[in-house]
Design goal:
Layout: H1 9-32, H2 36-47, E1 53-57, E2 60-63, H3 64-78, H4 83-86, H5 89-113, H6 119-139, H7 151-160, H8 164-181, H9 189-200, E3 201-211, H10 212-220, H11 227-240, H12 254-283, H13 290-298, E4 303-309, E5 316-317, E6 323-324, H14 330-337, E7 346-352, E8 355-366, H15 377-382, H16 386-399, E9 404-406, H17 408-411
Antiparallel strand pairs: 1-2, 1-9, 3-4, 3-8, 5-6, 7-8
Helix pairs in contact: 3-5, 5-8, 6-7, 10-12, 11-12
């Protein structure tokens, strides 16, 4: 017959206590008979000490099994330096976080270019590794076929040693440059001709350089301030209460204040005159024979720079021995791209330290071709290793943006 339902409150309380006691008893027995690792994992889950992630990198979670796989790789990597190094928890954790960050960066680059190592290739590699381990274990002295592990067991152990997503990501990161980016690239015949032409190109131009000191000195020679103007400024300061006083509390005399007033008024007037002068100079750029007009206005000589290659524009020397860094200006390169040669067009000013430089581009000439096709253009091109340097620079730049946030317990192990 069916068990009768408890009808009284006392019976309901009694049965609830019995059920709770049995639940605690069974749970304790289960935990007692669990293997050590499983018991720790279960207790960690109950107490909340375990987490499904080991931290974040650039806001992206790091799964614990993913982190542990990186930590295992670090362990084997450090074994060559000694047992103590390989068993240092702090060092292994730091290495694991760095490894995961490198993998995340490499995989983001790989995703952007559409590259990834397939899961099939990973499984093929594990199968090959399992066969080699099985063959070695069978052939070792003292082991018979029945004493060695089966090929399936070896493969399953290798498979379980690291999560598949970690295997794919780490393999993709390792293969990104050597197997994808560093492909043999051969410049076309047209590209080789353009490169040779750029090396042979020579530029000539004329310049007028104006410094702030030149303008200030030229303006100062033309400034005359009368005593009447100085007296007016003196009375203004006295009225405004900014005029200094002597120890007796009286305003200083005009004669005492005059040298300072003269210096102050000259400085202010020089600044205003220089700005007006700069405006007059800039207006002459559009005039015929503009460079001569600018030289006449500023009383500065015209200098010439002859037959300079594009690669040497970062520092050019004029016929008067003065050096200029025109290539530091983006405006200079924009002007070059617009073909200003032999048109007596003046552009500027380009800033070079304390100087303002106006340029009139002359002729653009080409020498004889010197290009020689190498026997193997692809090999010659790859020797430069420019792509590797570029790839490493990308990784270094991105690393600063991929901030690591460690899980508390892991960071203190």
């Amino acid at each position: 017959m069916f068990e009768e339902e408890p009808s009284t409150l006392k019976e309901k309380i009694y049965r609830t206590i019995i059920a709770l006691f049995l639940f605690i008893l069974v749970g304790t027995l289960i935990i007692t008979f669990l293997p050590g690792d499983a018991e720790q994992s279960l207790m960690g889950a109950i107490t909340g000490q375990n987490s499904t992630k080991a931290g974040t990198i650039a806001g992206r979670s790091i799964p614990v099994d993913y982190f542990n796989a990186a930590k295992r790789d670090c362990y084997y990597r450090y074994q060559q330096y000694g047992r103590e190094t390989a068993q240092n928890p702090e060092l292994l954790n730091s290495c694991a976080y760095s490894t995961v960050r490198e993998i995340y960066i490499a995989n983001d680059i790989a995703t952007s270019v559409g590259f990834q190592v397939s899961e099939i290739s990973i499984k093929r590699e594990m199968s090959k590794q399992a066969r080699e381990v099985h063959k070695e274990s069978v052939s070792q002295a003292g082991y018979g076929e029945e004493d060695s592990r089966s090929l399936t067991e070896i493969y399953q152990q290798i498979y379980r040693s690291a999560p598949m997503n970690y295997r794919i990501d780490s393999a993709t990161g390792s293969a990104l440059f050597p197997n994808f980016l560093e492909q043999p690239l051969s410049p076309t015949e047209n590209e080789a001709e353009l490169e040779d032409e750029a090396k042979r190109a020579k530029i000539s131009f004329r310049i007028v350089a104006i410094s702030e000191v030149n303008l200030l000195n030229a303006v100062e020679a033309k400034i005359n301030i009368s005593d009447a103007e100085l007296m007016k400024e003196y009375e203004k300061e006295k009225k405004e209460g900014t005029l200094s006083k002597d120890p007796s509390g009286n305003f200083v005399s005009f004669e005492s204040r005059k040298p300072l007033l003269l210096s102050k008024m000259k400085f202010d007037r020089k600044r205003k005159e220089v700005e007006l002068w700069k405006g007059r100079i800039a207006a002459k750029v559009s005039e015929p024979n503009a460079l001569e007009a600018i030289a006449g206005e500023t009383l500065q000589p015209i200098e010439t720079v002859s037959n300079v290659s594009l690669s040497d524009l970062k520092l050019v020397t004029s016929n008067r021995g003065n050096s200029y860094r025109l290539a530091n200006s983006a405006k200079f390169w924009e002007t070059l791209a617009n073909d200003p040669f032999s048109k007596k067009t003046v552009v500027g000013p380009f800033s070079d330290n304390d100087k303002q430089v106006y340029v009139e581009f002359g002729a653009l000439t080409y020498g004889q071709t010197t290009a020689k096709k190498p026997a193997d253009q692809a090999t010659d091109f790859l020797k430069q290793r420019q792509l590797l340097s570029f790839f490493l620079e990308i990784n270094q730049s991105l690393a600063a943006e991929y901030n690591v946030e460690k899980k508390g317990l892991l960071s203190l192990e």
